[in-house]
C-alpha cells in the first residue's frame, strides 16, 4: 500500500511546468483576441447607435416610409334654416405602385393561384369602369418615365362603392387615399350665388370665393411604413400635422323660397324670350336677403352644363343697368324729404320739356299738357313731370340722396366682384344727365341696389345694410365675422310714408294692375322700362323691364324686385308683373303675413 502511494506521489511531482505555462499563454491570447473582437463590435455599435444614429435612421425610414396628405374638410354653406347648400363628401383616389406591379398569389377554393398583372389589371378595370388595357397602359407609362416609379393614379374621386370593390380584390400593389370633394345637394338652387370650385379645389366664384377665409381648410400630413413588396405595414401610420377643418358659412337665404323664385323667374323668362333675368326678395326690417334668383341658372355640380360663362355668376350682384322708372320713387322721396314739394303740389307736364339748360326730355307717349300732382306724376310715370319736380333740388342735393340710398357703391354683402353701378360725380354731369338721373337714366344700378331703395322707403326711411351672410360658424359653435346691421336714416318717416302712399296708388291704378293683383293685401309697387346699352356707348333696340315693390303696404315686411332683360316676345312691364305677383304671393303665404285691414289711400292725381 505504502509503495503504491509513494509511487503515485512521485509521478505527480514529475508534471512538466512548461506545458502549464504554454496553456496559460494560449488562454490569455484567446481572451485578448475575444476582447478585441468585442471591442470592435462595441465601437461599431456605438458608431451606429450614437454617432451615425440620426443619419442612418433617416436613411432607413426614407427607404421604407411614405408620406401622404391628410385632408381637412372644407366648411359647409347652409341656408337660414340649416339646409346644406354646399358641402364636402369623402371621395377616394385609387393608386398603385407600378414598380411593384408583379404577379401575386391568391387563395381560390383553398388553393394558391398565381394572378398575373394582366389579370389583376382586368379586375381593377372592371371595378373602376376602365379596361384592363388602360390599367396596363398606366403602369407602362409610369415605368417608362421612371423605372422605379412607386406611384400612379388608377382612378380619382371615386365613391366608396368603387373603393370597396377594388379593396376586395386584395391586390398588394394597389392603395387608396382620401380626396374630399365638393357637392351641392340642391343642384342649381342658389347655384349662381354659391359659386363653385375648380377641379383642383380652388374657389372660382360666388360665396365659395368670397367666403373662402371661413370655408377653407388646412391639410395635414402623415407617414406610414411599407414593406419590401411595397405593401403598407398595418398600424404604422404616424400623423405629423393635424388637419384643420373649415368653418361653416350661414346665409340668410331660404332655399325653399329660392327654388320657387328661380322656377317662376325661369318660366317667364323662357316664355318671353328674355336674355337673362333676376329676382330679389329682401326682408324690410332687417335688410336680409331671403332669395336671390338668376336666369339662366348654373348647377355647381355641373358647371360645364352652362355653356355661356356669363351665365355662371349672379347678375343680381354683378350686372348693373339703367333702372328706368322704378328709380322715380327715389326722386320723389328726395323731393318730399327736402320739403321742396308735397303730394298735392301741382305742375304742368307737357309731352316734351326743354329746360333752360338745354336738355331735351320727353314722355313715352304723346299727350297734351297735363295738370298733375306729384302723385299723378308717379302714377302716370311722366318723365317731364318728374323732371319739373326734380329740378326743385340742386344736382348736389339729389346726388347726396342717391348716395345715401346706396347708389354708386356695392352693397354690404361682400359678394365677389359685386358691381357698384355707375353714378358719376356732379361735376361730370352734362345737361342731359342732370335731368336723366331724375327718372332712372344716365346712371346704373344693380338689382340689389334697387331692392335696397325700396327697402329704405318701406322701412320708414331707414336703410338697412344688405345682408347675405349671418357669419362664420367655427368648429366650437361660435360665430365669427358677424356683420354689423345698424340702419341709417335716409328719409324722414313722413317722407317715406308719403312716398309709400303714392306707390300704393301706382299699384292700384297702373295699367298692369290686373297682372299683379294680390287679393287681401295692400301693395306698393312701381314698374320700369329702360333701354339696354349696345356696348358701344349707345342704346340697342332691347329693353330691360322691371317691377319693384313691397307688401303689406300698411306694415311693410318684404321687398320683391324683378328685372327681365330683352324679353323679345313682350318688352313691356307686362313681362315682369306676373312674376312679381307670383313671388310676392308665395312670400306672404310662406311667412304667414297678416292680411291688410285698413283700406289703401286715395290721393288726388290732378289739380
From TrEMBL:
Residues 71-213 form the Penicillin-binding protein dimerisation domain. The chain crosses the membrane at residues 28-46. InterPro entries: Beta-lactam/transpept, Beta-lactam/transpept-like, PBP_dimer, PBP_dimer_sf, PCN-bd_Tpept. Residues 1-21 are annotated as: Disordered. One of its GO terms (molecular function) is penicillin binding. It holds the Pfam family Transpeptidase. It comes from the Bacteria. The keyword Membrane applies. Belongs to the transpeptidase family. PANTHER family: PEPTIDOGLYCAN D,D-TRANSPEPTIDASE, PEPTIDOGLYCAN D,D-TRANSPEPTIDASE FTSI. This is Penicillin-binding protein 2. It comes from Cryobacterium lyxosi.
Amino acid at each position: 500500500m505504502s509503495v503504491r502511494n509513494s509511487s503515485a506521489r512521485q509521478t505527480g511531482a514529475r508534471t512538466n511546468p512548461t506545458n502549464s505555462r504554454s496553456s496559460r499563454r494560449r488562454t490569455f491570447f484567446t481572451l485578448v483576441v475575444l476582447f478585441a473582437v468585442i471591442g470592435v463590435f462595441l465601437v461599431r455599435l456605438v458608431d451606429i447607435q450614437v454617432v451615425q444614429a440620426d443619419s442612418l435612421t433617416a436613411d432607413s425610414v426614407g427607404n421604407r416610409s411614405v408620406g401622404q396628405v391628410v385632408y381637412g374638410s372644407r366648411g359647409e354653406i347652409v341656408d337660414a334654416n340649416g339646409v346644406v347648400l354646399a358641402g364636402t363628401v369623402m371621395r377616394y383616389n385609387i393608386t398603385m405602385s407600378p414598380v411593384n406591379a408583379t404577379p401575386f398569389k391568391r387563395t381560390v377554393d383553398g388553393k394558391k393561384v398565381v394572378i398575373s398583372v394582366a389579370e389583376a389589371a382586368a379586375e381593377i378595370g372592371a371595378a373602376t369602369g376602365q379596361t384592363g388595357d388602360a390599367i396596363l397602359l398606366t403602369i407602362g407609362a409610369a415605368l417608362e418615365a421612371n423605372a422605379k416609379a412607386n406611384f400612379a393614379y388608377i382612378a380619382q374621386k371615386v365613391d366608396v362603392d368603387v373603393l370597396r370593390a377594388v379593396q376586395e380584390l386584395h391586390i398588394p400593389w394597389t392603395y387608396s387615399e382620401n380626396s374630399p370633394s365638393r357637392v351641392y345637394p340642391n343642384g342649381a338652387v342658389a347655384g349662381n350665388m354659391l359659386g363653385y370650385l375648380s377641379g383642383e379645389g380652388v374657389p372660382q366664384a360666388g360665396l365659395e370665393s368670397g367666403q373662402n377665409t371661413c370655408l377653407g381648410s388646412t391639410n395635414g400630413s402623415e407617414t406610414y411604413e411599407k414593406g419590401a413588396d411595397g405593401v403598407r405595414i398595418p398600424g404604422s401610420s404616424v400623423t405629423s400635422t393635424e388637419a384643420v377643418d373649415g368653418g361653416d358659412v350661414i346665409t340668410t337665404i331660404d332655399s325653399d323660397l329660392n327654388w320657387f323664385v328661380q322656377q317662376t323667374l325661369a318660366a317667364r323668362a323662357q316664355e318671353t324670350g328674355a336674355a337673362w333675368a333676376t329676382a330679389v326678395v329682401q326682408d324690410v326690417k332687417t335688410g336680409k336677403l331671403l332669395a336671390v334668383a338668376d336666369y339662366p341658372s348654373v348647377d355647381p355640380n355641373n358647371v360645364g352644363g352652362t355653356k355661356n360663362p356669363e351665365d355662371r355668376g349672379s347678375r343680381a350682384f354683378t350686372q348693373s343697368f339703367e333702372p328706368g322708372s322704378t328709380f322715380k320713387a327715389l326722386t320723389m322721396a328726395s323731393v318730399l324729404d327736402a320739403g321742396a314739394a308735397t303730394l298735392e303740389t301741382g305742375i304742368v307736364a307737357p309731352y316734351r320739356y326743354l329746360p333752360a339748360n338745354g336738355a331735351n326730355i320727353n314722355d313715352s307717349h304723346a299727350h297734351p299738357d297735363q295738370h298733375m300732382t306729384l302723385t299723378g306724376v308717379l302714377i302716370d310715370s311722366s318723365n317731364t313731370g318728374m323732371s319739373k319736380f326734380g329740378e326743385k333740388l340742386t344736382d348736389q342735393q339729389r346726388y347726396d340722396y342717391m348716395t345715401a340710398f346706396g347708389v354708386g357703391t356695392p352693397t354690404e354683402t361682400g359678394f365677389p366682384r359685386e358691381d357698384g353701378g355707375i353714378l358719376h360725380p356732379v361735376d361730370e354731369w352734362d345737361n342731359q344727365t342732370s335731368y336723366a338721373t331724375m327718372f332712372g337714366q344716365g346712371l346704373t344700378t344693380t338689382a340689389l341696389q334697387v331692392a335696397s331703395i325700396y327697402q329704405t322707403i318701406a322701412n320708414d326711411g331707414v336703410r338697412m345694410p344688405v345682408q347675405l351672410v349671418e357669419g362664420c360658424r367655427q368648429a366650437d359653435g361660435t360665430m365669427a365675422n358677424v356683420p354689423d346691421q345698424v340702419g341709417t336714416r335716409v328719409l324722414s318717416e313722413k317722407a317715406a310714408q308719403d312716398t309709400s302712399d303714392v306707390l300704393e296708388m301706382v299699384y292700384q291704378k297702373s295699367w298692369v294692375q290686373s297682372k299683379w293683383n294680390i287679393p287681401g293685401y295692400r301693395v306698393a309697387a312701381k314698374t320700369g322700362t329702360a333701354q339696354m346699352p349696345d356696348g358701344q356707348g349707345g342704346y340697342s333696340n332691347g329693353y330691360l323691364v322691371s317691377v319693384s315693390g313691397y307688401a303689406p303696404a300698411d306694415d311693410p315686411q318684404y321687398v320683391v324686385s324683378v328685372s327681365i332683360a330683352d324679353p323679345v316676345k313682350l318688352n313691356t312691364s307686362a313681362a315682369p308683373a306676373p312674376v312679381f305677383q307670383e313671388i310676392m304671393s308665395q312670400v306672404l303665404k310662406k311667412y304667414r303675413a297678416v292680411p291688410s285691414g285698413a283700406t289703401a289711400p286715395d290721393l288726388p292725381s290732378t289739380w
